[in-house]
Amino acid sequence: MKGNAKILTVLNSLLADELTVINQYMVHSEMCKNWGYGKLHLAIRKQAMDEMHHAEWLIERIIFFDGKPTVSKLNTIKIGKTVSEIIQNDGDDELEVVHDYNDAIKIAHEVFDQGTVDLFTKILKMEEGHVDWAEIQRAQIEQMGMENYLVNQTESPAS
Ligand SMILES: [Fe+2]
Ligand SMILES: [Fe+2]
């Protein structure tokens, strides 16, 4: 099905967002594993996998619209040097992504593309979950202090 040019541009722009955070989260997840923060490693790894699903769904939609998915474009990747920076950078990106999906939903409504509205809404709900996770981590760090927070993250993965 031939897609709307504006929607194809939006889909590719969101794809760049997703591909950027996949890379950032994979690095962050492995840094946490290397430091022995098993819980944090698994939580960030799970987010990276959510983002892979999002990238897959966007690519699927672009191809459905006879468009060409741009998989070679990344935005700035912000690798944190500490757990605090990791959580800060990832949380900031999630907030931006929530904003981008809300914008995208507005554009999809304008061109009467309900199928794309539905896809964006499904992804948006997951991104809101990611924002929530980052906010919980920040609140815990503030309330219990970084050292106590980190002790709580050292639990090693079951596998
Ligand atoms: Fe995503
Ligand atoms: Fe996300």
Give a topology summary.
Layout: H1 5-34, H2 38-64, H3 83-110, H4 114-151
The structure holds fe (ii) ion (FE2) (2 copies).
How would you describe what is shown here?
The chain is mainly alpha-helical and 159 residues long. It is built from four helices and no strands. It has helices spanning 5-34, 38-64, 83-110, 114-151. The longest helix has 38 residues, at 114-151. It is elongated and about 55 Å long. The protein binds fe (ii) ion (2 copies).
Brief summary of the model shown:
77% of the residues lie in helices and 0% in strands. The protein has 159 residues and is mainly alpha-helical.
Descriptive keywords:
159 residues, binds fe (ii) ion
Number of strands: 0
In what range is the share of β-strand residues? under 5%
**What structural class results from the helix and strand content?**
mainly alpha
Query: Could you report the average pLDDT, rounded to the nearest whole number?
Result: 96
Poorly predicted runs are none
Helix and strand string, N-terminal first? Answer: HHHH
Largest sheet: none
Return Rg in Å.
17 Å
Number of helices in the DSSP assignment: 4
**Cofactors, ions, other ligands:** fe (ii) ion
Envelope shape: elongated
Oligomer: single chain
Helix content: over 70%
Distance between the termini: 44 Å
